[in-house]
Design goal:
The chain has helices at residues 9-21, 79-85, 104-113, 129-141; strands at 32-36, 42-47, 95-100, 117-122, 144-147. It is α/β, with parallel strands linked by helices and 163 residues long. Helix 3 packs parallel to helix 4. The mean pLDDT is 94.
């Protein structure tokens, strides 16, 4: 008899996105993204962080400052953008799994690459102008969105377990 307690495709790909988020050095918000093609093959992974060549020690991780350039916001590349830039295949028809609903800037990239569905966990910024703009663009472009309901709230990764 086969196991019955295995995770779904959605849980698997969201798990990859959340595991990727653990690579982020952002002290307040860690986001990961996983792009999957029509055949359930992973074609891109990313997490939020500074651009290549911009040291994590030379730029501020602050959320607030008197000058916007003294915060992280002008410099951080979002997980969705990194996943798109790291992609290995054509993204037309793909799904994007992400921990946090995309902002309007990422929405533009998502639409332009041909991704057709966004699967996300958190929508904590749903009342912001950025999220409202993203939703408006997704709707007009025909990009589907759905908030994932997880049946397995915890997935244990045990590096000591011998399979």
């Amino acid at each position: 008899m086969k196991r019955k307690d295995y995770i779904s495709w959605d849980e698997y790909f969201m798990g990859i996105a959340l595991l990727s988020a653990l690579r982020s050095k952002d002290p307040s918000t860690q986001v990961g993204a996983c792009i999957v093609n029509k055949n359930n093959k992973i074609v891109g992974i990313g997490y939020n962080g500074f651009p290549i060549g911009c040291s994590d020690d030379d730029f501020s991780w602050a959320r607030e400052a008197d000058n916007i350039n003294d915060t992280k916001y002008p410099y951080v590349v979002h997980a969705e953008a990194n996943a798109i830039l790291n992609s290995t295949k054509d993204l037309h028809g793909a799904r994007l799994y992400v921990g946090l609903f995309p902002c309007n800037e990422c929405a533009k990239l998502i639409i332009q690459t041909g991704i057709v569905e966004i699967v996300y966990l958190s929508d904590k910024y749903k009342d912001t102008d950025s999220t409202k703009a993203a939703r408006k663009m997704f709707k007009k472009a025909g990009v589907q969105e759905r908030q994932l309901t997880i049946k397995n709230k915890f997935i244990n990764l045990d590096f000591n377990k011998v399979l």
